[in-house]
Amino acid sequence: MRSKPPIEAHHEQLTQRTIKRAPKVLLHDHLDGGLRPATVIELAAESGYRDLPTTDAAELGEWFVATASSGSLEDYLKTFAHTCGLMQSRDALVRVAAECAEDLAEDGVVYAEVRYAPELFCEGGLDLDTVVQAVQDGFDQGSRRAAERGFGIRIGTLLCAMRQNARSMEIAELAIRYRDVGVVGFDIAGPEAGFPPTRNLDAFEYLRQNNAHFTIHAGEAFGLPSIWEAIQHCGAERLGHGVSIVDDIKVAADGSVQLGRLASYVRDRRVPLEMCPSSNVQTGAARSIAEHPIGLLARLRFRVTVNTDNRLMSGCTVSSEFATLIEEFGYDWADLRWFTVNAMKSAFIGFDERLELINNVIKPSYAEILGEPPYDG
Ligand SMILES: [Zn+2]
User: Fold this and answer.
1) Among residues of the chain, what percentage have pLDDT more than 70?
2) Which residues contact 85 (CB under 8 A, 6 or more apart)?
3) Residues labelled as active-site residues
4) What is the mean pLDDT of residues 319-343?
């Protein structure tokens, strides 16, 4: 009788290197928060930009992380003056988007939704349509280059309107105009306090009339009312961060848990939470990774996803973010698969495309890593 090799023999150690090889899905990543430090320096030299604190790539990378770690969302957002300042030409946008696609693909991300606010890139004279077309060209080029090196990635974009500006309707219309050529959804970003999502109700109304998808940054720097408005007034399908949903969950001394009505709604309706642990620690939305609500929310089986937010400002990748969570919460490969399938289910592309990635890419890979029988759908 032939004996089967023990299943354990197939188990891969969970290290950042092996995590990198496993397929991952990213739903919350900002284009202007993911530049390579070396590219920031080169773009500055090309355009005569003189405001960078240093021209050494390693030092600049550290400077971004340190400055973004000051503990408030407002200070964190100031670092974007440099990246946005350098993304004001067509060529710069193409390059940044192409490198973003390549970097994510090499990190093992098989599907990503990358977001940006087109209005931030119009200061050098570009119009909104040119911005969207340039970014799309960049993603196409980068995805092609990555595929040639054996890293397949599909990228959809989300167009953001800025909370403090009054252009959300215009950006929503832009998102609809490009919905069949790369744009898969809409979001609002920027300072949460003082700018409730309901200020943009007409844009959300318009998107819903057009059967379009949108997420809203909510519950990052502001509490439950922001989440409640985003879901119940605006109709957000997902929540950017959503950290403060824990304010509606009571954990008693004996460990028993009681969900309030909003937290119940979010869990019952499977509203995806686009959680970005490192970013949240930097802005003070969470005290540490160990105390980050993602631990409790994942344990309670909310639809939790793991994201980078801004790879440059947090000095992170999807793989490093997972490695950090594994260290703090002891997650295993099955947990990683759960987070990944959660994210894929929550993506804004069509059901058939999501299913294709889950059944043909994600599940077979994790079955192999876990030493399970070949996944046959
Ligand atoms: Zn964000």
Assistant:
1) 97
2) 49, 51, 123
3) 220
4) 97
Tell me which residue range forms the domain holding 50: 15-355
CATH of the domain at 239: 3.20.20.140
**Listed residues: CB within 5 A of ion ligand 1:** 309
CA 219 – ligand 1 centroid, Å: 11
Q: How far is the centre of ligand 1, averaged over its atoms, from the C-alpha of 34 (Å)?
A: 12
291: left (phi over 0), alpha (psi -120 to 50) or beta: alpha
Confidence of residue 11 (pLDDT cuts 50, 70, 90): low
Map residue 256 onto helix, strand or coil: coil
- Would the pLDDT of 203 be above 80? yes
The token pair that represents 160 in the structure block: 């953001």
Radius of gyration of the chain measured on its C-alpha atoms? 20
Question: From its phi and psi, is residue 215 left (phi > 0), alpha (psi between -120 and 50) or beta?
Answer: beta
Distance CA 368, CA 376 (A): 12
Instruction: Look at 157 and 3; give whichever has higher pLDDT.
Output: 157
pTM of the model: 0.94
Number of domains in the chain: 1
In three-state secondary structure terms, 264 is helix
- Residues 19-50 have pLDDT tens digits of 999 999 999 999 999 999 999 999 999 999 99
CA 278–ligand 1 middle distance (angstroms): 12
Report the C-alpha gap between 30 and 26 in whole angstroms.
Answer: 11
Both tokens of 31, joined, read 């284009």
Q: Considering the domain boundaries, does residue 5 fall inside one? A: no
